[in-house]
Give the backbone structure.
Amino acid sequence: MIEHMQSSVDLTLTFLRQKREETKRLARIAPVDLGIPVVTAPR
């Protein structure tokens, strides 16, 4: 049982690390414009 839990945790951490690397790679390739409005100061 403990071994099974340990392997599940290992799989989850591996998955999250892969996702993090993928996200960093994609962020370098093409930053996404989220369309967040910019509030300009009133003049």
